[in-house]
From TrEMBL:
Keywords: Amino-acid biosynthesis, Branched-chain amino acid biosynthesis, Isoleucine biosynthesis, Transferase
Family annotation (SMART domains): LeuA_dimer
GO biological process: isoleucine biosynthetic process; L-leucine biosynthetic process
SUPFAM superfamilies for the chain: 2-isopropylmalate synthase LeuA, allosteric (dimerisation) domain, Aldolase
Pfam families per the UniProt record, alphabetical: HCS_D2 (PF22617), HMGL-like (PF00682), LeuA_dimer (PF08502)
Protein name: Citramalate synthase
Sample GO molecular function, one term: 2-isopropylmalate synthase activity
Keyword Amino-acid biosynthesis recorded: yes
Pathway(s) per entry: Amino-acid biosynthesis; L-isoleucine biosynthesis; 2-oxobutanoate from pyruvate: step 1/3
Family per record: Belongs to the alpha-IPM synthase/homocitrate synthase family.
Catalytic activity of the protein: pyruvate + acetyl-CoA + H2O = (3R)-citramalate + CoA + H(+)
Pyruvate carboxyltransferase domain boundaries: 6-271
Amino acid sequence: MSKERLYIFDTTLRDGAQTAGIEFSLEDKISIAGLIEGLGVDYIEGGYPGANPVDTEFFEQKRTRRATFTAFGMTKRTGRSVENDPGVQAIIQSKADATCFVAKAWDQQVKVALEISLEENLDNLRETVAAAVAAGKEALIDCEHFFDGFKANPDYALSCVKTALDAGARWIVLCDTNGGTMPSEIRAIVSSVLAVAPGSRLGIHAHDDTGQAVANTLAAVEAGVRQIQGTLNGIGERCGNANLITLIPTLVLKPVFSDHLETGIDADRLSRLTKISRAFEDRLNRAPVKQAPYVGASAFATKAGIHASALLKDFSSYEHVPPESVGNERSIMVSQQAGKSNLITALARHGITLAKDDPRLERILATVKEREARGYSYDGADASFAVLAHEVLGTLPSYFTVENYRTSVERRHNAQGEEITVTEAVVKIRVDGELLMSVAEGNGPVNALDLAMRKDLGKYSTRIEDLELVDFKVRILDGGTGAVTRVLVESRDGTGERWYTIGVSANIIDASFEALYESITYKLLKTGATQDSTVEVA
């Protein structure tokens, strides 16, 4: 029996950007879009072109390879034609493959917020969808406040769905905008909508204000919708959105869904789920939630006692899915069993092949655990993991050593009498016995240190000409006077590859230095630069 296709729409970069305390830069958006695409979702909604400079620039070029690149915006305003509405035109003229327009589906909102007639709202909806389709874009309509609107005036809410469908919209998305609808209501209302639109054209967009966004999404899928919308780790305004990191494995692994539905996410992509979730939190400079379903550090952890002893004999009894299926690992605190399969997979990504019974695997695993106890986290810093693995295996070439470095920050008056801040870094590097000293000024001590370290690497200088520091994030792991600082550095080169390295120290500059040093080392590793021989794992 053939399965129905279920489509996954990620709105982390748009709806997730409404989260209090989160501001995505252009580089953040590019990086996070890559993370999301690695998960294998069908649509990536990148933002609202024309609404702000970052989103506008983000949509100046196509940012996805496989996923449908989607722009968000409002339907046209009353009193303007589609051609003369700058908001609609910014979306249609962007590099997006698809357009997602939000339209009011609650008669009260139309009258009070928009101050237009119900018929005018339908006209605006119809004309906007038609314009997007005529421009060659796939058209989606987010029916805002749909469930509240249906409860108040079901005929009008359904007319919004039918109008969008007749105008050529590929998807009509039913939005629980204030997050207050119950799963039973979702199921009943979706069933009513199916009378005017097939499930293969319907989506669900749930907010988490009652803690039921995931449950509401699953209820809608059970009722017949075939597109789900959500965000990585459930971020979003107020209490957040439906959490795709929880929804995806539930839909893929649970027979109640997987027996008759299929997604574009295969077992290999699903096994990246934990890594992607934790790497995303690193990008946000936040600690991952330990109790998060499927991907949390405690999701498959069992303390000493009856459960642990039973688990040693029968893992399946206390685990609803195999931890490795989502890229997580089992943690039995009395025996610390964990990690070999994941480690072998991670090493393979860097061209290192070890057998499961290779004793060096235990050394790497022990080193990773010891360093993570000190504050390191390699889920979001794969390049640092590669450097560490080669170091433990004895296959890391000694490209260069930094004998010492110094950074200084000076506030002074310039020749015009203006108060300025000057940051300088001095680095002494030894390459093949030759001592090289570099001095650089930068926009802050980390930038100055980065420039000085890359200024002269002797025979390796040509290897790092296209190396660029993109971003760095700082997190204080422990408060008080003995605080530990973790620095995550993002780098890229001319190939378009981006990688992340990590440094941990009580001193922010030392932590930054460590991350920068490993970024340069990783660049040399990946370009194949060696001193005397090829790096091999015996």
